[in-house]
Amino acid sequence: MTKPESLEERVFGLRGKEDNFDEVALEVFSFQYHNNKVYRRFCDGLGLDPAGVNDPTVIPFLPIELFKRNRVVSFSRKDEAVFISSGTGGDKRSSHYVADLSLYERSFMECFRMFYGEPSAYCIMALLPSYLERQDSSLVYMTKRLIECSGHPLSGFYLDDLRGLAERLSDLDSDGQKFILLGVSFALLDLAASFPRSLGEGIIMETGGMKGRRREMVREELHSVLCNAFGREHIHSEYGMTELLSQAYSQGLGRFRCPPWMRVYIRDSNDPLDIMGSDAAGGINVIDLANIYSCSFIATQDLGRLHPGGVFEVLGRFDNSDVRGCNLLVDLTV
Fold first, then answer.
1. Cβ-based neighbour number of residue 91 at 10 Å
2. Total number of domains in the chain
3. How far apart are CA 97 and CA 74, in angstroms?
4. What is the CA radius of gyration of the chain?
5. H-helix or E-strand containing 10?
6. Do the domain assignments include residue 86?
7. 230 — phi, psi (to 5°)?
């Protein structure tokens, strides 16, 4: 396989040239159809004629469940890393075989700078106990690099020392130092319950996930609790997953925005091949063009709603009884 450097540059060159998204998406689809055996088998199982794909909305979206039992790759060389999803209980976890870690780093660094500026402007503190104990988490990899680029002496991971973290946050706030506290939902709730305090201009960013530690909450309830505990008007959110190389960010009200090389569509919950318009609720499909060497077209198990301008919100997740459409596609094609 020849490494398509020009395709990579076209993907990241979409910043400021968003009108070219459809064209680049079709190029990535063609590359992955011809180089990704799992994805091609899936497309062929749907009776797709790749020559007739002339719009991103008709590109097949691979059900994310297929990452649990397949090596979903568009390359033949040895992978540089394998990221594993966190999973819950006895669920089989997804594996994302990453051909080029520099591509992942470029994606998350350029995206972070787009929404927040340089990491060196912040003290970046991470509260990710359910992830930090693992060495195969894409979220930990991203956060570690952001912490390194921050360079602030108090930047780092905080596992169980909630009291020490709370004291450092207060010190940073008193010093007028900008900071980002990135945390999994249940850990932020633990901090809020034990050490509530006003944090002024600091950014609190949740990455989702109760992981069975607390009862599930809708995002509005979670953010209300955290806002009240930390004296914030808005809570930020990060939307990403093991199977992707890009993230969307919400800077308040649970409304997410994507980088130029990422786009979200909403599919009909009962007909996974039907793409719906703005303001309709359904399953979230993601195009992540940075994910060149895996699959860029993913049908997730998340429920969401798309708003004008490509803004979207996450409403929850399908349970196993609700994903019958995607399960049918999985059973029929792979």
1. 10
2. 2
3. 10
4. 20
5. helix 5-12
6. no
7. -110, 10
- Sign (positive/negative) of CA torsion 173, 179, 184, 185? positive
| pLDDT values of the chain reduced to their tens digit, one per residue, 334 residues | 445 568 999 999 998 888 899 999 999 999 999 999 999 999 999 999 999 999 998 999 999 999 999 999 999 999 999 999 986 545 789 999 999 999 999 999 999 999 999 999 999 999 988 676 677 999 999 999 999 999 999 999 998 789 999 999 999 999 999 999 999 999 999 999 999 999 887 999 999 876 555 576 788 999 999 999 999 999 999 999 999 999 999 999 999 999 999 999 999 988 999 999 888 899 999 999 999 999 999 999 999 999 999 999 999 888 654 444 444 455 544 5
Q: Which residue has the tokens 């029929």?
A: 332
Confidence (pTM): 0.91
Same domain, 124 and 235: yes
Q: Coil, helix or strand for 139?
A: helix
DSSP percent split of the chain into helix, strand, coil, nearest 5: 40, 20, 40
The structure tokens listed for 73 are 């790759």
Task: Please check whether residue 317 lies inside any domain of the structure.
Answer: yes
